[in-house]
Design a protein that fits this description.
This protein is 39% helix and 12% strand. It has six helices and five strands; from the N terminus they run H-E-E-H-E-E-E-H-H-H-H. A five-stranded mixed beta sheet has the order 2-1-5-3-4, with helices on both faces. A hairpin with a 2-residue loop joins strand 1 and strand 2. It is elongated, with a radius of gyration of 26 Å.
């Protein structure tokens, strides 16, 4: 009497079938990799450090880093610029926001190697001598922070928001600052700070 389909005694070993299929699928991949290795004998070990020069706040910084290092980790761990904060590490809270060539960027998702040759501006690079940047001063004047953890990213994003032309109304400011989360809910004060600083930033 033939075995019922799917029964253990049918002679069909599902695990062996999947393993065999996976193994056969890998044959062309491994063969291709072997041929590529033969063509390029000097393949670089990805775990080895790479040399990169980052221009941060107007100064060139030469670093030897893992190729997977983000801008945020390069700033905090290698350059000791700890103003940019590591919040979620998933690009969702905005605490790590910096400006790269005047564009706001979540630095926790941006590779340092990708930022080479571009101007990186952090919260530490805003003040001039003893004079605060207009947005920094506006955040103080309007009490636009409580715990302060998100504030550096908020300020960097707010500067970009103004320069992008999105500070014309409260609704625009809220919309274009929505990528920066304030867990203390100081949002009305942040909007007020952006509105205060906007004319001076656009004038300068």
């Amino acid at each position: 009497m033939p075995d019922k389909p799917g029964s253990r005694s049918s002679g069909f070993d599902r695990r062996a079938f999947i393993a065999g299929a996976a193994g056969s699928a890998l044959i062309p991949i491994t063969a291709r990799a072997a041929s590529e290795d033969a063509r390029s004998p000097a393949t670089q070990d990805p775990s080895l450090p790479v040399e990169v020069t980052l221009r941060v706040n107007g100064k060139d910084k030469r670093l030897s880093i893992d190729a997977r290092t983000t801008v945020l980790d390069a700033l905090r761990e290698h350059l000791k610029l700890t103003g940019s904060k590591k919040g979620c590490d998933h690009g969702q809270c905005g605490a790590c926001t910096v400006l790269i060539d005047d564009r706001r960027v979540v630095s926790c998702l941006t590779l340092a190697l990708a930022a080479e040759g571009q101007e990186i501006t952090t919260i530490e690079g805003l003040a001039t001598d003893d004079r605060l940047h207009p947005m920094q001063q506006a955040f103080i004047d309007n009490d636009a922070f409580q715990c302060g953890y998100c504030t550096p990213g908020q300020i960097m994003s707010a500067i970009a928001c103004v320069k992008e032309g999105h500070a014309g109304s409260d609704a625009d400011i809220r919309e274009y600052m929505s990528g920066n989360i304030c867990r203390c809910a100081a949002y009305p004060n942040i909007v007020a700070a952006v509105k205060q600083a906007a004319p001076e930033i656009m004038k300068g």
